[in-house]
TrEMBL record:
UniProt catalytic activity: N(6)-[(R)-dihydrolipoyl]-L-lysyl-[lipoyl-carrier protein] + a hydroperoxide = N(6)-[(R)-lipoyl]-L-lysyl-[lipoyl-carrier protein] + an alcohol + H2O
UniProt key word Oxidoreductase: yes
Organism from which the protein derives: Xanthobacter tagetidis
Name of this chain's protein: Alkyl hydroperoxide reductase AhpD
Gene name for this UniProt entry: ahpD
Residues of the active site: C131 (proton donor), C134 (cysteine sulfenic acid (-soh) intermediate)
Recorded GO MF terms: disulfide oxidoreductase activity; hydroperoxide reductase activity; peroxiredoxin activity
């Protein structure tokens, strides 16, 4: 399935979602690798197999195998880090912030693609997962790498559109009658 096929599945009440999906291919300020890596990482982060599959299929011809793996790694490692660091940030007991995480995350240091691209994907996933500490950390690294605010905003916009597509599709799936067993 492609983005066009995914758009065809979006219900009429979510016309804005469909229009925003259409605009993703015209997102300015992002390289093709950045955009398509965002589609993969954010698609996985929705935990919606239909969205993830469609976006991966769309991105596959445009990403190297290393970039595809790195985008998937960004989704996976941020799933772990966002839970852990959101906890340390939100816990009233600030002692947790001083303890070592003891989590393996070597992919962040050697993602197999341009570090700024990986950081951009990690930032978008962190925005989807609501981890302010990770958002701040990745945004800082990106700004130090010369990534502009409009590029960072574009990455988060992609994340927002992908998340909305998953919600729109789930609302349709959830309203269908249960299959006969």
């Amino acid at each position: 399935m492609s983005i066009d096929a995914l758009k065809d599945r979006i219900p009429p009440f979510a016309k804005d979602v469909k229009l925003n999906l259409s605009a993703l291919g015209r997102e300015e300020g992002l390289t093709p690798q950045q955009l398509h890596g965002l589609l993969v990482a954010c698609g996985i982060t929705t935990r919606n197999a239909e969205v993830a599959g469609a976006l991966e299929a769309e991105a596959a011809p445009r990403l190297s195998p290393a970039a595809m793996d790195a985008a998937k790694a960004a989704a996976a490692i941020m799933a772990m880090n966002n839970v852990y660091y959101r906890f340390t940030h939100l816990a009233s007991n600030k002692a947790y912030e001083t303890l070592p995480a003891k989590l393996r995350m070597s992919v962040i240091g050697a993602p197999g693609v341009d570090r700024a691209d990986f950081e951009l994907w990690s930032l978008a996933v962190s925005a989807m997962n609501g981890c302010g500490r990770c958002i701040d950390a990745h945004e800082k690294v990106l700004r130090e790498a010369g990534i502009r605010e409009d590029q960072i905003q574009a990455a988060v916009r992609v994340a927002a559109v992908v998340a909305s597509a998953a919600v729109a599709l789930e609302s349709v799936r959830d309203s269908l009658p249960a299959a006969a067993e």
